[in-house]
Amino acid sequence: MELDRISNLPSNVIEKILSHLPISVAARTSVLSSKWRYKFAMLPHLVFGCLCPSNVVDHVLLNHVGPVSKFRLVQGLIDIGDIDRWVLHLSRYSLKEFILQISVWQQQRYKIPSCIFSCQDMIHLKLSCCLLKPPSTFKGFRSLKCLAFAKITMAQDVFEHLIVCSPLLERLTLRDCDGFSQLKIDAPNLQFLDVVGSFEDVSIVNMLNVADVSICFNERGIPCSSGSLIKFFDDLPRLQRLQINWYFLKYLAGDALLKKLPKPCLHLKFLCFNDLEDISTALCLIRSSPALEKLEISAIDSPYYRPDVGTVNSCLDDNHSCSFTQLRHVKITGISGVEADLNFIRFLLLSSPVLETMTVCAKHEQLDLGIEPLDLVKQLLRLRRASPSLEIIYLDKWW
After folding, report:
1. pTM score of the predicted model
2. Angle formed at CA 382 by CA 379 and CA 387, multiple of 5 degrees
3. pLDDT tens, 312-324?
4. For residue 99, how many C-alpha atoms fall within 13 Å in the half-sphere facing its CB?
């Protein structure tokens, strides 16, 4: 009997199809025919969702044939005690991608078994809600390119050693990790950095290839010390995208009042921050970015947000001759309609000759008392602009 078309597909295509099916569905294909019996058992990528019970994981690993290059597990119905033996089993393979997402409802962080640190072929490591205590013999992941940690507990020396001893690291994501207070990163091949957390100090060195940076300090973890705005950008000469929040901006600026950085950010094309109170630092960054094409500003979502009009106007007057010749798209969210907000928008409109779109978003409840949305729209449309082709877009809600 002639086989169906799917069975005659190349093995790599069948493997791709099976890898996109839920693991329990893919396992059932082994009963289709003798030709399909071992196709599922030879899949190099094993992905188990949060509804997958322990016995299914046991069955798949026990009957697996051939290499396992990727293992992803989202803990849901699985007992935390079963994971240890699965990790031990997987450490015998040339594992290249390991993703373990432990439930946030666990009372304690899951301690990663030491055997995982022997996987020297690891390229992608993603962990959440875990405790890291590598053995003293751990020399780093020499092949690691992508590292993503969320709610991970580790000591300061463990974090620094892990980064330094991963010489090929290109992407680093840290979300609400604890156990270390100094964000010290030395990664010569890093291209992407995304950090959310609480730190006392930041030290970024040997990162000449980084193009995309996002750093958000938590409110509860505002550093006591001040950083160096100049040094931060000196260490990131190829930066193209930057997203920072008010707390990190405040940390960088300290008491310094700079109109422009000594060295311009020649490659920075996208800038996003969430404050108009520290207007001088914001303008310093904008002025120091001659290639800037897209600017996004989110006002602090607080009833106490009231940037000082006098300070804002003074800074704008000092920068009245600026011209942002590459700026094409501006988005300002959460404005309250106060005079300082409108003056800053007016400044951007007059200083951006090639601006294409200005998107202004506001929440009704954030509008200043006595200001109706329609009145705000009228004020925006009356503002003079340098760009003849500008489109002003007003949205009365933002998320």
Report:
1. 0.86
2. 125
3. 566 666 656 788 9
4. 16
